[in-house]
Structure of YdbS-like PH domain-containing protein:
Amino acid sequence: MRSKNKPDGQESRPFVATAGRAQAAPGGEGAGAGQELTLRPPRHPVDRRAVRWWTSQAVVIMAPPVLVLALLGLLIPPARFWLLLPALVIAVPGVVYALVMPRWRFRVHRWETTDDAVYAASGWIWQKWRVAPMSRIQTVDTVRGPLQQIFGLAGVTVTTASAAGAIKINGLDHALAADLVERLTARTRHTPGDAT
């Protein structure tokens, strides 16, 4: 199976995952006999509301120290410069981060499930592609934090028998996430393998 184009349009050499580890496929050929899975970009983007969710997370992290420093700077005139300067130093990169990071992550984050595996791409500066064969999946869970609930989103955590840890698909519509968990649970129940 040949790899599909990368999200940026460049052709990529496929990787083959065997027993949970990815290896370069010889000659660019992919899976065979149902035991090897091609590591490739997943097809489905996360929900568009994830951009607002990630932006809100960035603001929640950045705003409190900036507001506290600015308020103290206004209330304590002799220390105004020494309080407003760090507020500005935190605010400027924080605003850039809140504007750039969510849109960049939206372009990178992708997911897909097939009869054989779960595929996920995540990150923004450090990007990661993961594939988990159905036979290696141990548990499938839904995660909904307070901000995710406000935006009607959820995350799916696929725990595998791998030292690399769980695969996390964040920024899905909560109904889609619940359906995905149900489908993956049913599919892994009928997939031969010991998940170890």
Notes: Residues 4 and 120 are 15 Å apart (CA to CA).
